[in-house]
Please model this.
Amino acid sequence: MRVVMKLTDPLLDAGRTLFVDNYYTSVRLAKLLLERSTHLVGTLRKKRKMNCQEIETKKLKKGEIIARISPPGIMMLKWKDKRYVMMLSTKHLAETKVVPSRTDPERKKPQVVVDYNDSKAFIDLSDQHKAHNTPLRRGVKWYRKLSIELILGTALVNAFVIYKEVTQQQITITNFKTQTLRRILEKRECPPMVQETNAPLHDLQNIAIRRRCVVCYENVQEELGREAAQRKTPRSKWQ
Model:
């Protein structure tokens, strides 16, 4: 709950609607967001604190709906499709919408479910793109897995979407990844790493007594002063 409030703080108090996963959805979060003029819509887990026990325990037949609305305007809904679906919303009522299917042209769904699915469509599509040739492997440390996911997953999918939008080309995510990697691995001429300098070079000679390097001492003394040069310049038999 604190994570959601912290991440969305700059976007609150503007009448927006926040669609969240069942990991975050709760009645307490809905109340906090209502106080900040923000609606909440999300799937709901069973046995969450402040859940309506009547809705949780009610057994339904396929297509049936049960819903309750609390005084602040928080609606909790349960719908039986292939399995039970529980929703929490501060924006909807227990309304239904006809969504035809192959087997049932008069099939009805709760409006809150329809809106939730529409809002999550892009996220689901993004997950599908990232699932193609995923670089994630078992046994990888969580921080490495996070870095790999952000760079080779999220970043590549975002680049793929931008590329298609700008070029108007039809290309698959697999081909886009292949072209991107080939472009990165292309052989290119790199400038030499060593740059010419007028600074005096070391001409090392083996001496009997350990002394400070004259060249290093003068360089440090010129930059930091005499005391720093005496303290930082190492002694060596090679001068």
In short: Residues 123-180 form one domain.
